[in-house]
C-alpha cells in the first residue's frame, strides 16, 4: 500500500468520517475513495488539492514526501496556529506514535476529570524522576 493510501485512510478515520462523507465533499463516488485508500488508483491533481484542503494538510504530506523537522514544525505550527510546538514536542509525538499502548494510556488520562488527572500526573512524574535519578 502506498503512503498516500495510508494517509488518506488515517486522516479520514481520525475524523470519524465514512468514505461516503469524503466522496460527497469531493463530489465523486464512494468506490473512488475506496480505490484511493486501497492503493488501486491515485487521485488526480485537482482531487489531491481538495483532499489537502479537506484534511488541512499539505499535498507533500498526503503523498508521503519526506520533510525535515523544520518543515514539519512549520506545518504543525501552521495547522495549530501557534509557534509553541518545538522539536522536543515532535520527539514526544514520535515516541507516542511508536508506543501505542502509552499513547492510549495518555489519551485515557486526558479524558479524566481534572482532579483525578492531576493525581495520576503527579505520580507519573514522580516515578519518572525517581527512575532517572536511579540511573544516573
How would you describe this protein?
- The structure is a single chain.
- This protein is mainly alpha-helical and 136 residues long.
- Helix content is 74%, strand content 0%.
- The chain has nine helices and no strands.
- Helix 2 crosses helix 3.
- It is elongated, with a radius of gyration of 19 Å.
- The termini are far apart.
- The mean pLDDT is 89.
E-strand count: 0
Helix count, per DSSP?
Answer: 9
Characterize the overall form: elongated
Helicity, as a percent range: over 70%
Radius of gyration: 19 Å
Low-confidence stretches: none
Query: What structural class should be given to the helix and strand makeup?
Result: mainly alpha
The biggest sheet, with number of strands, parallel, antiparallel or mixed sense and barrel status, is:
none
Compressed to H and E, one letter per element, the order equals HHHHHHHHH
| Oligomeric status | single chain
Strand content: under 5%
Q: How far is the N terminus from the C terminus? A: 44 Å
What is the average of the pLDDT values? 89
Give a quick set of tags describing it.
mainly alpha; 9 helices; 136 residues; single chain
Task: Please render the helix and strand layout as text.
Elements: H1 3-14, H2 19-26, H3 30-37, H4 45-55, H5 59-63, H6 69-79, H7 87-98, H8 100-111, H9 114-135
Helix pairs in contact: 2-3
Brief rundown of the structure:
The protein is mainly alpha-helical and 136 residues long. It is built from nine helices and no strands.
